[in-house]
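FW: tagging you since you asked about this chain on Friday. Here's the raw sequence from the shared folder, copied in full. Didn't touch anything.
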Amino acid sequence: MSVEDRLAELGLELPEVVAPLASYLPAVLNGSYVYTSGQLPITKGELAETGKVGAEVTPERAAALAEICALNAIAAIKSVVGDLSRVKRIVKVVGFVASSPDFYGQPAVVNGASELLGAVFGDAGKHARSAVGVAVLPRNAPVEIEVIAECSGARGLD
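HL: got it, structure written out here
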């Protein structure tokens, strides 16, 4: 089953690549690796929610927002490789969680992204990961996700 078929089976549609908020690219291809910029939970040009996890945002909602970030990262990867079947492996995920001072559940929040990547890419979606609590994120977003993917046959590869 293709990655696009899995997305459809999961009831997901790849969004347009989120336009950069400053001077950077959404994703960069270097050799056989794609590095995404940090992806916020933006849908249709709007931040889905703001606030700190453990205060204004529940951990469950933050995990759902991490899924949106991961979907945005998949769209950014596709924008530089052209075809998601070229993704050989999701190598690394870094999740940043804007946390209230007494919130310690960052790994559970970032699981939203990890589980989505596993569902979409199967075994190739299993990855190394960091889940980091931070004081604040751009636009007061609750979560931000970066992804590194190994690809083959991408534009200019192989």
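FW: The first strand starts at residue 27 and ends at 30.
HL: agreed, and The chain has one domain: 3-151.
FW: great, closing this out.
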